[in-house]
Fold this sequence. Notes:
By secondary structure, the chain is mostly beta strands. The protein has one helix and 31 strands.
Amino acid sequence: MKKVAIGVISALAVTSFYSHAALNLTLDNEVVGDGDITSLLSNAPDNVQDTDMVDASDNTITIEQNSTGITNGSAVKVQLADNDNSLIDIYQSNDATTGNRPGPDGENRAFVHFDSPSSSLSRHDNNDAEIAQYGDRHEAYIRVAGGRATDNEFTIKQDGDAHDASVFVLGGGDDNEVDIDLEAFNNNVTVTLSGAGADDNDIDVKATDGSDRNEATVFVSGADNDIEVEFDDRSDDNQVDITASGNDNDVDVKIDDRSDDNQVLANVSGDDNDIDVDIDDDSYDNSVYVNVSGNDNDAEVDIDDWSDRNMVSIMQSGSYNDSRVRIDDRSDDNIVETTQTGNDSWSDVELDWGSDYNQVYVTQNTNDHSDVYGWNADYNVVTVTQN
């Protein structure tokens, strides 16, 4: 049985989201790093620290480098094989004087690599690795390749412009925490957790107030993972690209108050996943695209008060899926498209008090339910098609 509850309806034909606007998710930033250690120490930095620990545990490694006033910067490589219960703490600074341009202070690079000659039979457990970089144009990499990683904490903190930060856990791993903190402009972040069952991991990427033109890419394969990306107030022109495959994953993206022209893309496959995107008050011209395949998934997008000209597309394939889009008070000229293919899915779109001139398009098939609700909302266009 098909049910439709509609506050405002128009006879206009259903139009694809892509005819209104297309996301520009080309990741092209000023600092391009690939995490390749082979060239890390070969660019003639002024300060070099190279540490190798093989079949070693319970170590404490602390490295501090200051590149202020030197030309070629500093480089750190810490490589650990078959390592458990170690603490790695790296601090690099160039006093943030380069102003996002090549200058008298050198660019710093740091690489922490957990490796294993015996590959999949080895483990890297209970390690704590932190890289803190202050200044501009730094690169930080933490990589686990060969063997599983469990109960580790990997942290990268970067204060300044035009950094590259990457965390790769490539052999599968459980119960790891990945935290990346950004401040300022033009930073690249990449987090990848893949391999045989990357489960119960916690990934947090956060940019402070006024952080613009940053790019965050997260890829996770496994179950019961938590992924959170947040840009604080007045953060503009940021791009978020999240891919999660598996069951029972939580994906949360939050764009805080007065943040404009941000783009969010979430591709999620599997069952019982939750996807939440929140665009806070007074935020304009943001684009959100959520693509979900599987069953029993929930996707929710909230556009908070006084937020105009935002675009939201939710596409779900599978059965028993739920989608919800809420346009909060006095938010105008937004475009919402929800498409559900499969059985017994539910779509809710809410236009709250004083939200005018919005366009809503809902397309469903096979025993689905659609509820479009408007309260004191004028001049909106709502088109629902059920097959």
